[in-house]
Amino acid sequence: MTNQTASASISRMPNPGEFVPELKDISAALFRATGNQSVPRTTINLIHLRAGQIVHNTYLTVLNTSFLRKADESEERITAVSSWQDAPYFTDAERAALALVEATLQPAPHGRERVTDEVYAEAARHYDEKAMATLTIAIGQINFFIALALIGKPQPVASLADEQWD
């Protein structure tokens, strides 16, 4: 692979914000809603990273890995997000949040619901009602961006300030 090929854009579509300017307002509102400090930003970034891994999206994975690095998270914790169930690097509250995002995004076994009462109860043991609402919004937030990332396939970036759409 040449440098020219490696740096070529992989975005499929132009920035949707150019055509739907309200997207900026929606994005800002979601970030404000999840930034209410009821759930640590690190936890939100961990679940957003896990979501990007689950849907196999480089843009979301690179972006949320960058957020975690900027927050001085260890490489061990960042790397272990994909195998969090048996990794010693996460608190019980973080594990509950990771289980919640996995249950939401992954198909359930036939005849079972995705988010079981057990998964919900474990998360509720660690988070009060405001934090549970915030976690739910954070999972909805990443789902909103999953559609944009999978369909539009923006350029992977380490910061939202970087240009990700051609």
Task: Please tell me about this protein's structure.
This protein is mainly α and 166 residues long. It is built from eight helices and no strands. The protein has helices spanning 3-7, 22-34, 41-54, 58-70, 75-80, 92-105, 117-126, 129-152. Helix 2 packs antiparallel against helix 8, helix 3 (41-54) packs parallel to helix 6 (92-105) and helix 6 (92-105) packs antiparallel against helix 7 (117-126). The two termini are 21 Å apart.
Short description:
It is built from 8 helices and no strands. It has helices at residues 3-7, 22-34, 41-54, 58-70, 75-80, 92-105, 117-126, 129-152.
Keywords for this entry:
166 residues; mainly alpha; globular; single chain; disordered N terminus
How would the blueprint of this fold be written?
Layout: H1 3-7, H2 22-34, H3 41-54, H4 58-70, H5 75-80, H6 92-105, H7 117-126, H8 129-152
Helix pairs in contact: 2-8, 3-4, 3-6, 3-8, 6-7
**Shape, please?**
globular
Average pLDDT number: 91
SS strand fraction: under 5%
- Give the radius of gyration: 17 Å
Q: Give the number of helices.
A: 8
